[in-house]
Amino acid sequence: MTAVAAGLSDTAFNQLLATVTELGKGVVASAAVAVDAEARFPKESFDALRAEKLLGAYVPTEYGGLGLNIQQICKICETLGRYCASTAMVYAMHQIQVACVVNHGHSSDYFQQFMRDICAKQWLLASATTELGVGGDLRSSRCHVEVSGDRFTLEKKAPVVSYAQASDAILVTCRKDANAQAHEQLHVVVFTRDCELEALSTWDTLGFRGTCSAGFVINAKGSTEQILPAPFADILAQSMHPTAHCTWGSLWYGLAADAVTKARATVRAAARKNPNLPPVSTLRLAEVDEQLFSMRSGLYLAIEEYRDLLSVGDADAFTNYGFSIRTNNIKLRCSEMVVDIVGRALMIVGIMGYKNDTPNTLCRHLRDAYGAALMVNNDRIRGHNAAMQIALRGDA
User: What percent of the chain has pLDDT over 70?
Assistant: First the structure.
């Protein structure tokens, strides 16, 4: 793992973020209702993101990317989360996979070209880490890669592969060979065009409907060059785990912030009707804004820590139990606070937030919010934190 790019200058990034905001207000928000109602991939949004070269945002400029740092990627996820949580989640999951390639594939000529292709062709990357029979444990695999010469085959039964059929490539975890232990894993890129995807399940859910996270049996083949040149244990600890929780927390914060914005609009409208008597809901608005402030503060602090660690390029820093616990805490606190904040905002907005067809509706916000704690179940994460707390020394 090497030190990553410092990111765009504040001026350049603010210009880019203004573009993302305009896309959010226009294309993303306009498609969000249909994406949710039909549980379909947000094609319009990703056509627009591709047009702005945003799928290669985290790739260094030397490979044709925009060269954003993790903090800037998280801000884009947050911004998209204000308009469509499904679009923001797909974008976040894509960038998690890009981070794995950028941070761990740079020593390979193949993956250097792969990064160039992400940028030039605006490839969308998906992920298949979960597997039937391992209970959601990312550090265990039953399937393995079968190598013959310079070619491989692979079969994985994955209960969840978000937007698989809309992706250009899928990063798959597996055992390194048939005799390997469950935790001796590799991370392999398979091209969707070279896969047979046999459906295991459908995706008709309460929220995050546009992520299209159905299950598939993946039968894939390819060149051994497509195997990332690092153990998956390192990829998970240094890139996948922290990038996932930082980007997910950011989009959940964007979702929560938009709910508070709608609550504020409701309170302002009530205050204008009777300026001499502030509505009771003003107090409730102040309270929920405190919660939003707490969510933002913890999230931003953790993102800054990860950005700084990446800039140093010290792989050993990611083995620290304190860092792992704090990274897990992003997911735990943000996924639970988003439900609380959206629920409080709904009580302020009232019946107009409970209806689907009003400007201040919060129905989709609430349904999406409840999905946050379920993806990588919070009880599993707290169990890991509990075990690490015993081994943690001092305030590391």
Answer: 98
